[in-house]
Amino acid sequence: MSHTPLLDLIDTPPQLRALDKAQLPQLAAELRSFLLESVGKTGGHFASNLGAVELTVALHYVYDTPNDKLVWDVGHQSYPHKILTGRKNQMHTMRQYGGLAGFPKRSESAYDAFGVGHSSTSIGAALGMAVADKLACKSNRSVAIIGDGAMTAGQAFEALNCAGDMDVDLLVILNDNEMSISPNVGALPKYLASNVVRDMHGLLSTIKAQSSKVLDKLPGAMEIAQKVEHKIKSLASEADHVKQSLSLFENFGFDYTGPVDGHDVVQLVGVLKELRGKKGPQLLHVITKKGNGYKLAENDPVKYHAVANLPKDGMPSENKPAAVVKPTYTQVFGQWLCDQAAADSRLIAITPAMREGSGLVAFEQQFPDRYFDVGIAEQHAVTFAGGLACEGAKPVVAIYSTFLQRAYDQLVHDVALQNLPVMFAVDRAGIVGADGPTHAGLYDLSFLRCIPNMVIAAPSDENECRLLLSTCYRLDTPSVVRYPRGSGCGATVSDGLDTVAVGKGIIKRRGSRTAVIAFGSMVQPALQAAAALDATVADMRFVKPLDEELILELAQSHDYIVTAEENAEQGGAGSAVLEVLAKHGICKPVLLLGVADVVTEHGAADKLLDDLGLSAAAMRQRISTWQQSL
């Protein structure tokens, strides 16, 4: 066990604020040690939390939380915040069923001001809180803590643009560690990395932090110091690149401070105290190191972005050779992409900052000129793909289901209405497990199938995934192939680029009386349930267009119809089957198996699917109970 005598005395921020400022470096060291031990056992987001320890301590030391609001962007870095806000003794339950969520969650703690999970929402949310407090004549302060990766997204700049033109007290902290999950891309990170700017502002910040106590006691000295500071800025701005750097955030209407060393907790406290007393929009630029204090994570923050656990040798178990060699759906996609690109020079791959997660590492290495990471900018990714398609390219957008939600307008207007041949490889469709409801892909079938010109495929195993990827890529229309996280049943995957008939399903098992019309990941559990029920199972392959002929044949030859999908019941694939039956005037008992109208929890995927009635055993029981009730 870690030796944490000071941290042991801290359960809530008021106790933290009772410490002497000189004790804060020790507290930060103990907090980092506790964090290493905790995440080492439970797994979870790792490098980002190590990099935010001192900043978290300083924020809770200076600000009157929870009256003052801290809004953490994405929330990958919120573990130190949870430890200091009454949840230290629950950290062993992190991301487990019934335990702490991996992200800030309003229902979990009064200190979690805003529920997050997706990037670039913090500034807008904190601005809303600041405006509400102003209208209510409250003196509370709102702080948005956003990383340089999340700052590349358009929503962050929309909020900056709005806030800078408002008379509101708001602090935006730009936590600059030169990383998102992968290394940052684009012009903004290059701008932030300007050594000249960092040196100049680092000097100014150091002068201000170290001399404030003395200057406060000398009549007129602070005014003189401020004039000197402005003079230094004026001289520095004579160089064009420095001038641009000094003016970017100031042109948005923010008073810029920094860069400041994000691992000097005492200096951070001094700067934050000064900023808390200032009026209007403020931006503090903090420099941190992702994985700080753990050399393996410092040297490879991508690998250590999240870990399963940390054994004694320091290597995350997920990075060791796996005992089971079944390829994941992501790996199947990555291999197919490389093979298809070798066969067709028109293929271009696009990702919104998810190179590793979407399986694009090998593609980038083999086809660097045809690989585009556009940063955390899902909307731009889709419109960019549309533009490529207009000029004869065949773009493939690799994106998670939960992140595709953020680009719905572009999906409709910039791709589908123009009937452009953009293929979307939609990963993490369905339940995702420990990441919880913000990352669950439970709505894509519902929001996709109403879009004209769209083809939607849902593979039932790994080989079907490759077949359907090849099939949809050949189309001259928008298409989606949606597949779950992790591995399937271990099907042998071909190495060809074969295709199947669009909109045609197949019978996987013949039975009597009951027909289960299954989609994607639900085919395998449906087959297991059907063995005990003597039911027919159809693998529909496509959600749109539906195989109406197969549905009608099953409806006419069976007494009971069951649909199964790992998607919301409302408006999903089951609803599409009901529409077909209604159109043809067929009235048969139909049971829809999908995710009910609830917000799902976090935890092991198998446990969640069983609770939702979508495991093989739960399906069998639900079907039997339903039939007995008729």
TrEMBL record:
Its cellular-component GO annotations read: cytosol
Question: Which residues are listed for Mg(2+) binding in this entry?
Answer: 148, 177
Database matches in PROSITE patterns: TRANSKETOLASE_1 (PS00801), TRANSKETOLASE_2 (PS00802)
Known CDD domains for this protein?
Answer: TPP_DXS, TPP_PYR_DXS_TK_like
GO BP annotations of the record are:
isopentenyl diphosphate biosynthetic process, methylerythritol 4-phosphate pathway; terpenoid biosynthetic process; thiamine biosynthetic process
Q: Name one GO molecular function term.
A: magnesium ion binding
The record places domain Transketolase-like pyrimidine-binding at: 327-491
The residues the record assigns to binding thiamine diphosphate are: 76, 117-119, 149-150, 177, 294, 378
Any Pfam family hit: Transketolase_C
Instruction: Please give the subunit comment from the record.
Output: Homodimer.
Name of this chain's protein: 1-deoxy-D-xylulose-5-phosphate synthase
**Lineage, highest ranks first:** Bacteria, Pseudomonadati, Pseudomonadota, Betaproteobacteria, Neisseriales
